[in-house]
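Budget justification, computational time. The allocation requested in the original proposal was used primarily to generate structure tokens for proteins on the priority list. As evidence of use, we reproduce two of the resulting records. The first is shown immediately below.
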Amino acid sequence: MDKVPITAGGFQRLQEELRQLKTVERPAVIKAIAEAREHGDLSENAEYHAARERQSFIEGRVAELEDVISRCEVIDVKKLSGDTVTFGVTVEVADEDTDEETKYTIVGPYEADLSKGMISTSSPIARALIGKRVGDSVEVATPRGAKSLEILSIAIQ
């Protein structure tokens, strides 16, 4: 089994989601199934089928989270040097064609959220940036074509 790199905050969020599913969502759906069964004929009972579908989703997500949590390797980003782009750092880059500046935080695959500027270590941009230093330029193959990015700064959050 491969270890999954994750920040302490990301690990805590996964554990909280698992706790929420087990202690709140699971009992609620069991109660909903029991109530729907009381309505009689299950073959035409939409509430029953919806509750069973929700239960199936919850159980699948619980199994997935338990698997991921068991394989997580929490990395303390405060112990990193910040000289090069690595897991856990926030890197500010400028598109060399448009001069548009963007900040990315490089995280594990279960923390990635592009809307928050958090990109996975396996993303094309992160793979191109990892190991580089401030001032370096990198070519990144993106779905919209090749991009040239210059690293402006590296910070540890």
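The second record produced under the same allocation is shown here.
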Amino acid sequence: MSYEPPTPPAILPSGVVNTLNESTPECLRDVATYAEELAEHKERETRLEGETDQDEVEERADDFPDDVPSKATITIKNINDNRYYYWQWREGDKIKSKYKGPVNPGE
């Protein structure tokens, strides 16, 4: 581990960099978690907006568990160096998730 502070990405606004530099380690970890979850959310929203093929949704509907709506998509989450599939969908302003299974079932 380097004793030098990290160099912020050039794309970050200076106000954001200054705020982060003034933050506690605990706050920075919370920001990192939030930023990762927000990035996943925005990527998922982009995918959902791009899915306009209703035939594909109807074709997949038989694969859905009873408590998962047909508009749900499958996402992959990394948890403790393991990858898992989750059903995810929007209910109002909230994102709902349901565990589906490991990405590599043999592991």
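A brief technical remark on that second record: Residues 73 and 88 are 5 Å apart (CA to CA).
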